[in-house]
Design goal:
Strand content: 5-15%
Radius of gyration: 57 Å
Strand order of the largest sheet: 1-3-2
Structural class: mainly alpha
Helix content: 55-70%
Largest sheet: 3 strands, antiparallel
Mean pLDDT: 79
Number of helices: 14
Length: 518
Amino acid sequence: MDSIAIWIVAMVVLTLLGVGAGYIIALRTSRRNASSAANTIIDEARREAEVIKEKKILEAKEEEMRLLAEAERQINQRNQKLQSAETRSRQRELQLNQQQGDLSRRKKELDQRATALDNREASAEARHAEADSLVQQAQEQLEKISGLSAEEARDKLVESLKDEAKTAAAGYINDIMDDAKLTASKEAKRIVIQSIQRVATETAVENSVTVFHIDNDEIKGRIIGREGRNIRALEAATGIEIIVDDTPEAIVLSGFDPVRREIARLALHQLVVDGRIHPARIEEVVAKVRRQVEEEIIETGKRTAIDLGIHGLHPELIRMVGKMKYRSSYGQNLLQHSRETANLCAVMASELGLNPKKARRAGLLHDIGKVPDDEPELPHAILGMKLAEKFKEKPEICNAIGAHHDEVEQTSLLAPIVQVCDAISGARPGARREIVEAYIKRLNDLEQLALSYPGVLKTYAIQAGRELRVIVGADKISDEETERLSAEIAKKIQDEMTYPGQVKITVIRETRAVAFAK
């Protein structure tokens, strides 16, 4: 047993020794292989490094050569520029030398001329002194001969020249006026007359009262009512004074607002026809009639716009146009006046080669400032212009509305056309009327204005205020001054007075010799 165990141990030891020897041999073999591979890699790396080194050296040499060539090129360019600059400087130096020589030569010439001028100036001063002495002697001789000093003669000469200049100016003015009348007045008259003839006009006079006719006087009592309650209710609902007097078969409606008078007239008519007249019924009928009149106003505005061929008006402007039917100016119905002005504007614009549609639109809207819903403290032309601007009308239309009474500056050709046509419509015979007192006062002011001028003896306003005859003293005003006086009076009337149409001023100067045979 002991020998077997020993043998087994020996075998184990031999086996372990054999395995260890094999492992050692394998390690040595792999170490030799790794060493040889490493040497191979190192050799290859060295060779590649040599190649890269040579390549970089070549690239560096090429870059150096390129930089040297570029530097050489720039140096050559700079040398060329320096050479050209040097050449130019030499040429400039030669030119300056030539100019300096020319300047020296010119300086010598100028010095010679200055010397000659000094000599001439000395001789001229001597001659001037001699001429002054001769003029002084001649002046003294003239003063002795005429008996006037030089200042007095100068003043008389100036006065005579002023008179001659005034006379010549008046003559030139007359010539210019005659030429203008021959050329412009004829054509203007033709256009205006043709425009007037092509527009049919009507004469309409509105009062501040409306007469309501009734079949018999028994209705008056029913309108008044018990203790006057019906008439008071009617007046309170309409704002119109109702006058029931002894006038047979008539009741007078008095009020400054034509719309209110129309509402009162229509309401009274319905009440009389219906027969039921009491305060509750009166208020109901008046409210109904007010709505009807408002609808009629809008319908009138639409119909007017359609008749005139005007499109695109704002609804509020249409309502204002309709309200013109119930307004009057100096007795002339405002809607009729606006329609007439619109037609005149269209005709005149077409004659002048302008847009007749714009002119008709401006003519229709030129007086909308007279029918606003509120009453601001503004001239109606300015108010109308602001309303047109508010409702998006074009700038030339707004300017024509605002400038038709010269409140604002005219900036378009439509403005003078509207102004002229407004004057034509308002100044035609029968279009407008005045209160007697205002008419008499205007004529008196016209005569007194002309009497305020010196030399005026008498004045007479004739032709219903359309002409002013001015009689002057023959010993106080000359013939030339009469023309100037008529122009001054016309300008003052135009600046200070308000009147329809135009006023003709005629200055009369005459000399009368009276003798008696006995």
